[in-house]
Amino acid sequence: MSALSLKNLDVSYGETKVVHGVNLEVAEGESFALVGESGSGKSTILRAIAGLAPEWTGEISVLGKPRSHGVDRSVSRTVQMVFQDPYGSLHPRKTIDAALSEPLAIHGIGNRGERVEAVLAQVGLDQRFRFRFPHQLSGGQRQRVAIARALMLEPKVLLLDEPTSALDVSVQAEILNLLKRLRREQNLTFLMVTHNLPVVSFLCERLAVMRHGRIVEIADVAQLKQGELNEPYSRELLAATAGA
């Protein structure tokens, strides 16, 4: 069964259509990347799956269940999103404990203290961080908290929107290793947006190249590593990364 299935997905902001006829299947346990230049519609697809882009048509299914428009609590238990900017995605006046407890409160889940402690340990943060505020943490620590918050409801799918692009290079490696370990230990499915093709090579099995809101190519990471992408635009992206 597919963890994520998109069929003829169109997404609009007002009268502007930004995603056109996207068809995509992501298998359970797979790590799949959406790559392409800024404005190609990658993050918009994640937002539609998460229920944050209400104006869409087509079909979105999560673990075989079609999702409705807007916020869907059953989908929230299954799919969670990690945003690009960990400082912007965490409330500056809420402690880490409050941020991690909030999803549990919304869904009426008990044992909150124990769950918060367990998830902090999973992402490599000790308990002294629990009652700190986001501004008291480094960028890498904040992103670990953001990942922890996404894990609080024990989802099966994580949507990762440029999860390391706001971090220093050394910290990026730590977060990528953390994500790889969590995926293995919890059998998670990843759908990740990134500009960074080496990140795709490290973390993913397949990728879709997007341009102007459309998928122009789907390839295995082996093709990426060997420089054997088929579409001219895909090869341009690869060349630009190699020359960076």
UniProtKB/TrEMBL annotation:
One of its GO terms (biological process) is transmembrane transport. CDD domains: ABC_NikE_OppD_transporters (cd03257). Belongs to the ABC transporter superfamily. This is ABC-type dipeptide/oligopeptide/nickel transport system, ATPase component. One of its GO terms (molecular function) is ATP hydrolysis activity. Residues 4-237 form the ABC transporter domain. Pfam families: ABC_tran (PF00005). PROSITE patterns: ABC_TRANSPORTER_1 (PS00211), ABC_TRANSPORTER_2 (PS50893). Keywords: ATP-binding, Nucleotide-binding, Transport. Coiled coil: none annotated. It comes from Devosia crocina.
